[in-house]
Design goal:
Number of strands: 27
Strand order of the largest sheet: 3-2-4-1-10-9-11-15
Shape: globular
Radius of gyration: 26 Å
Strand content: 15-25%
Distance between the termini: 11 Å
Structural class: alpha/beta
Largest sheet: 8 strands, antiparallel
Bound molecules: fructose -6-phosphate
Helix content: 25-40%
Length: 623
């Protein structure tokens, strides 16, 4: 939610900032802006409402000159998307400029105070108060960093900020509290950004700022302190992400590129965790071994899985797996509900926070609450060093590589896989899972990437107007609503399929457990409302077929996802997409692929912006 980038060095800042913003646009695209300080001390600010190309147009061919600058791409919270509300924001005289990700909760009272002192505000944003606070503090402080520390001591809320001042050329000050901010180290130049892909092209040497830290960044130095000015030493980490991973690689959209990356992402998620031993396959999750060795799991009687959106769908799948393998009662709770629900949680509850970005505000707050009440916490996340990793006692990384598309795909399948591995580990830990079943499951997990490659090949062959995807996409593109059903693990799959369709094609979709249809929602069905059913092989297969029959009796058009070799399904469905046979619990990891691709083709048919759906941002860092 909002992206920040900064550059201080010897090169021209504008192209570096614009390129960084391009890679951060997934964080918000209501407006964008840059501020560049020239060698002559001129501070130029350019901003534009809407997508980044509007800012490029506003910048034009005469780019602001200078080798120090900051940029921002916005997902609006305080104040509608407009040029005035776009960041960077400046003080009364245009000497200080600030970009901000987060929410300053006490901005109204600070604004009243600053207005009473004569400051003039130009925007409706909470961020602008920071520029004016700095304007007030700077004349009496020794450095921009000190002024920033004093200003931040006065604000409550969440922030990641970057500040440039005409009085301190050659410096950018950054700070964070509940918003991500990293520093990239270059040779005679340094970078700031909300996320690694923004600066991956320039450096892989990264310092991750921790909560409540302030960084004074010059071309040749980075000085870290806490909010009171106490010095902090931190060595950089080396990021091994492939720069290509943040490019579209010949695909028209990140969404479809990341769908096709899923087999490789699965391989990476399994790497080093499912290992060949002389006596067969073995599971290795050192993070959980270490956690158990501390005794933190000795009292464990239950687990709670917390997350939002797609992550909660992966958690729902994991519930089936963990309850079966570990006989451990598992509660799955939407983080934004959990935190206000007075939950029953304590040292006997293992809390598993499930979050791709590791910075979703609701998931962070719910997890912190569980931790405060004594629960040991395991984080399942994709982003190294993200905020959730600091709340957790143990971290399991997805190892999926960067996911740029706002809508999650490869992180759904890797998240589900990593949670299943945790389920197997819990099964062994509790003594409930027999070794044979563990080995069978590990072997089945290892075959998933190859099986998924086959699904992708079959689906690619079904593209084009005469192919099955083309036909289904044409039908769904013209309908006002559609229904997804599944049973058991097929239900979270249905939820995820419906979410993809809603998010990128704006077609209304509902997901139901198949047996629940007849208790009400079946009233919605008629020939204009297609039904997409998970009919992969499983212990409730016959029941799903009966539910499909009930729907066909109401003349609804049925699209089924089925297991290869199931010729009988053709009698019950108008269109069928096949996936290879897999254990019932693993089938959704394959079956989601046709659903993702159907959503993609519906979105294309409706002319939607696939990578940047309206109203969305990839990381939701506000409540
Ligand atoms: C769906 C999607 C969102 C996220 C949700 C949680 O495609 O991307 O629903 O899953 O905002 O995000 P994380 O996993 O980063 O906490």
């Amino acid at each position: 939610m909002c992206g920040i980038v900064g550059y201080v060095g010897t090169k021209s800042a504008t192209p570096i900032l614009l390129e960084g913003l391009r890679r951060l646009e997934y964080r918000g695209y209501d407006s964008a802006g840059i501020a560049v300080l020239s060698g002559a001390g001129e501070l130029q600010v350019k901003k534009a409402t809407g997508k980044l190309h509007n800012l490029r147009t506003a910048v034009g061919t005469i780019e602001p000159e200078g080798s120090v600058g900051i940029g921002h791409t916005r997902w609006a919270t305080h104040g509608r998307p407009s040029d005035d509300n776009a960041h960077p924001h400046t003080d009364c005289h245009g000497d200080i400029t600030v970009v901000h990700n987060g929410i300053i909760e006490n901005y109204a009272e600070l604004r009243d105070e600053l207005q009473a002192k004569g400051h003039t505000f130009r925007s409706e944003t909470d961020t602008e108060i920071l520029a004016h606070l700095l304007e007030d503090l700077l004349p009496t402080t020794a450095s921009l960093a000190e002024a920033a520390r004093l200003a931040l001591q006065r604000v409550t809320g969440s922030y990641a900020i970057a500040v440039v001042s005409r009085a301190h050329p050659g410096h950018i000050v950054g700070a964070r509290l509940n918003g991500p901010l990293i520093i990239g180290l270059g040779d005679g130049e340094n970078f700031l950004a909300s996320d690694i892909p923004a600066i991956l092209k320039h450096t892989r040497s990264i310092i991750i700022l921790e909560e409540g830290e302030v960084a004074d960044v010059t071309p040749t130095s980075v000085t870290l302190t806490d909010l009171n000015g106490a010095a902090i030493a931190r060595a950089p980490i080396q990021v091994d992400w492939d720069a290509e991973a943040a490019e579209k690689g010949g695909y028209p959209h990140f969404f479809v590129k990341e769908i096709h990356e899923q087999p490789q992402a699965l391989r990476r998620a399994l790497l080093g965790r499912v290992v060949e031993r002389p006596d067969g396959l073995a599971l290795r999750l050192e993070a959980l071994d270490k956690l158990a060795a501390t005794g933190a799991l000795d009292k464990m009687r239950r687990a709670v899985l917390l997350g939002c959106g797609t992550s909660i769908h992966a958690a729902l799948l994991a519930k089936y797996a963990m309850e079966r393998w570990a006989r451990l009662p598992v509660e799955v709770s939407i983080a934004s509900e959990y935190r206000y629900a007075d939950p029953i949680v304590g040292p006997d509850t293992l809390c598993i926070a499930v979050t791709q970005s590791g910075e979703t505000a609701d998931t962070l707050a719910a997890t912190r609450l569980a931790r405060e009440m004594g629960a040991p916490v395991v984080a399942v996340t994709n982003v190294v060093g993200s905020a959730i990793t600091r709340v957790a006692d143990a971290v399991l990384y997805l190892q999926a590589g960067p996911e740029i598309s706002v809508t999650a795909t490869k992180t759904f399948v890797t998240m589900t896989t990593v949670l299943y591995l945790a389920g197997l580990w819990l099964g062994r830990h509790s003594g409930q899972l027999v070794e044979v079943e563990e080995r069978q499951m590990l072997a089945a997990l290892q075959t998933l990437p190859g099986q998924m490659e086959r699904v992708l090949e079959t689906m690619t062959a079904a593209e084009g107007p005469d192919g099955a995807i083309g036909r289904v996409a044409a039908r769904l593109a013209g309908c006002h609503s559609c229904m997804f059903i599944g049973r058991g693990p097929g239900f979270p799959l249905a939820l995820e399929g419906a979410l993809k369709l809603k998010e990128i094609s704006y077609v209304h979709a509902e997901a139901y457990p198949a047996g629940e249809l007849k208790h009400g929602p079946i009233a919605l069905l008629d020939p204009t409302v297609p039904l997409i059913a998970d009919a992969t092989t499983g212990h409730t297969y016959e029941k799903v077929i009966s539910n499909i029959q009930e729907v066909r009796a109401r003349d609804a058009h049925v699209i089924a996802i089925a297991t290869e070799g199931d010729g009988g399904i053709q009698r019950h469905a108008d269109e069928v997409f096949y996936v290879p046979a897999a254990p019932e619990i693993l089938a959704p990891i394959l079956a989601i692929v046709p659903l993702q691709l159907i959503s993609y083709h519906v979105a294309l048919a409706r002319g939607c912006n696939v990578d940047q759906p309206r109203n969305l941002a990839k990381s939701v860092t506000v409540e």
